[in-house]
Amino acid sequence: MTDPFHTDESTRPANRLQQTGQALVLMLVGAGLATVGTGALQAVQPLFDNGTPEPEVVTPEASKTNQGAIAQVSPVPAPTNFVSDIVQEVGPAVVRIDASRTVTTQVPEIFRRNPAFRQFFGDMPEGRERTEQGVGSGFIISADGRILTNAHVVEGADTVQVTLRDGRTFEGQVMGTDPLTDVAVIDIEADDLPTARLSNSDQLQPGEWAVAIGNPLGLDNTVTVGIISATGRSSGQVGVADQRVNFIQTDAAINPGNSGGPLLNERGEVIGMNTAVIQGAQGIGFAIPINSVNRIAEQLIATGRAEHPYLGIRMVTLNDQVRANLEQQTDLTIPEGEGVLVVEVLPDSPAARAGLEPGDVLVQIAETIVADAEAVQAEVNANAVGTEVPVTVRREGRNETFTVQLEAMPIQS
């Protein structure tokens, strides 16, 4: 069942705030050629080709006229390395982000009131404060100090320190965070900073080059290379069903500390923000497409928060197993066939006001036939807040269409 408040523990962000003094623990973390064709192959061929230009041959006659001298040959040109070029160009715009926060650990009542315990340790406070620290990455998008990173990198932080590749450090101010897409914007007081160029992630194709730069495990300015393994991975597939974004999958190595860093194409343009990996797997990492990141970042810069269109239902993609479980656990009459079942209509929501009911099967939203819950969510996300959207459902064997005016999702307290 699609639940916006559920996160699969098998997928976690690259950076979590950790207790001071604790060793870093490997966790789950957080390209674009136009098309892979002849031009792309020619561009990278020198990187792998061991062939070198034929050296000039010293003729026997020339050797005889200069006996004992070493034969001179033309220098061999070094092959072009596009990864090195990317690092030189974009590396200065990639930053390290150190975030810290103070948390209070509650002392159990049984210890505070136990006479024997108090005899040895004295009166215990209700809570003890400790400092948690975490490290992530980010990249500069404006010369005056705007930086993009993951929301989980700076979530709840009391202080944020930004370190540039040249060693300069700045205090960072969080302009806004959006947990639903895991995007945050930080601002530092600086001028004439190097910036990263943004690409169009909608044009990405599997098989294109992917270069990740970041600070995994505190190892600053680490570069890894891979390809785009897939695009359009849903949050449900990745295991973070509470997020409102699809993901780029890459086999470029991503580890804790890479969170918030850029994923780049062979031209050195940002195509995604490195965010997560699958625990225990190798070569399966995920990045948020830069088009999605940029859309949210613009709202955070303007207002400090992001709005998300909201339908107001809980739904599940029907199959035989789901149908059997629902029949045992609910009083709903589960229709035959496939589709997206409305399990719950939230009170005072757009769906409730439009007339949708539990037990309806979603068939179509606007012009899109929806076959699963991910398709429903994607279609809702594609519309702006305030848009009136026709929603067709199957109810008691008949199709009915309702007009739903999408609203901004309520802010969760």
Task: Summarize the structure in short.
With 413 residues, the protein is of the alpha+beta class.
Please tell me about this protein's structure.
The protein is an alpha+beta fold. It has 2 domains: 7-46 and 79-120 and 127-306, Thrombin, subunit H, CATH 2.40.10.120; 309-408, Pdz3 Domain (Roll), CATH 2.30.42.10. It is 20% helix and 32% strand. It is built from 11 helices and 23 strands. Strands 2, 3, 4, 5, 6, 7, 8 and 9 form an 8-stranded antiparallel β-sheet that branches. Strands 10-11-12-15-14-13 form a 6-stranded antiparallel barrel. Strands 17, 18, 19, 20, 21 and 22 form a 6-stranded antiparallel β-sheet that branches. Strand 14 (270-278) and strand 15 (285-289) form a beta hairpin. The two termini are 23 Å apart. Residues 1-10 and 16-68 have low confidence and may be disordered.
Draw up the topology in text.
Layout: E1 11-13, E2 18-19, H1 38-48, H2 60-65, H3 82-90, E3 94-106, H4 109-112, H5 115-121, E4 127-140, E5 146-149, H6 151-154, E6 159-163, E7 169-171, E8 173-178, E9 183-187, E10 209-214, E11 222-233, H7 235-238, E12 247-250, E13 262-264, E14 270-278, E15 285-289, H8 290-303, E16 309-310, E17 313-317, H9 320-329, E18 340-345, H10 350-354, E19 361-365, E20 368-369, H11 373-381, E21 388-395, E22 398-405, E23 407-408
Antiparallel strand pairs: 1-14, 2-4, 3-4, 3-6, 4-5, 5-9, 6-7, 8-9, 10-11, 10-13, 11-12, 12-15, 13-14, 14-15, 16-23, 17-18, 18-19, 19-20, 19-21, 21-22
Keyword list:
alpha+beta, about 425 residues, Thrombin, subunit H, Pdz3 Domain, eight-stranded antiparallel β-sheet, six-stranded antiparallel beta barrel, single chain, globular, about 20% helix
